[in-house]
Amino acid sequence: GQNIDQPTEMTATEGAIVQINCTYQTSGFNGLFWYQQHAGEAPTFLSYNVLDGLEEKGRFSSFLSRSKGYSYLLLKELQMKDSASYLCAVILLSSGSARQLTFGSGTQLTVLP
Amino acid sequence: GAGVSQSPSNKVTEKGKDVELRCDPISGHTALYWYRQSLGQGLEFLIYFQGNSAPDKSGLPSDRFSAERTGGSVSTLTIQRTQQEDSAVYLCASSLAGGRADQPQHFGDGTRLSIL
């Protein structure tokens, strides 16, 4: 079966750095996505990792270790608007060549002034 | 269109009724996905379309759920004889090509379905 774990909630202060971890146990791993979802809105794409290492995109970075089944999303210089749910999703190979995403339950990040 | 469009945005219906949810993907996106997000839970994959065909229906929770896609564009998700446990946000996503793992899926705002 597939299992993706991430913390349910995190709190951080404006201007700080926060790291959101995600661990997974899956078969047929073909990459990992991070999405941001504000309440009542659509998830929006943040990053994609398929090789080990760090991918940096402005204030956001994402890291992957395939051997450890581990990823993290790093948010720097936090802003109030970063308060949202952050979804870790693993993309799997399936019999129909579909690239369905298997999501974790999401981490609700609250940024305090 | 500019983004994935879903309608209706909200649907309230009585238990036992049928509902139809619509998704209009981003123009040119051949892959289309339906997910369900229940309160406090992660997104749950329902079905995937590549063009008009659905090679992966593994996520449909029961035979009350069906989906179709016509003209390689608009898709409808139909739930027959709705039950209270069907209450959730139904999200549609599309991507350029289903066969490329690195193509991000772009989501619509979802349809919030409430079964009374």
Short description:
The complex is a heterodimer of chains A (113) and B (116). Chain A has strands at 3-5, 9-13, 18-25, 29-37, 44-49, 53-57, 60-65, 70-75, 84-92, 101-103, 107-112.
Strand fraction of chain A equals over 45%
State Rg of chain B: 13 Å
What best-fitting shape of chain A do the alpha-carbon axes yield?
globular
> Can you count the beta strands of chain A?
11
Content of β-strand of chain B: over 45%
Strand pairing plus helix content of chain A: what structural class?
mainly beta
Kindly report how far apart the N and C termini of chain A lie.
Answer: 41 Å
Q: What share of the residues of chain A lie within helices?
A: under 10%
What is the straight-line distance between the termini of chain B?
Answer: 33 Å
- Order of helix and strand elements from N to C terminus of chain B: EEEEEEEEEEE
Number of alpha- plus pi-helical segments of chain A: 0
Structure summary, number of beta strands of chain B: 11
Mean pLDDT of chain A: 90
Sketch the topology of chain A as an H/E string, one letter per element. Answer: EEEEEEEEEEE
Query: What gyration radius of chain A follows from the Cα positions, in whole Å?
Result: 14 Å
Q: What is the number of helical segments of chain B per DSSP (H or I, 4+ residues)?
A: 0
Task: Determine the most extensive contact between two protein chains.
Answer: A-B, 29 and 32 residues
**Unreliable segments of chain B (pLDDT under 50, ≥5 consecutive)?**
none
Seen as an oligomer or otherwise, the chain set is: heterodimer
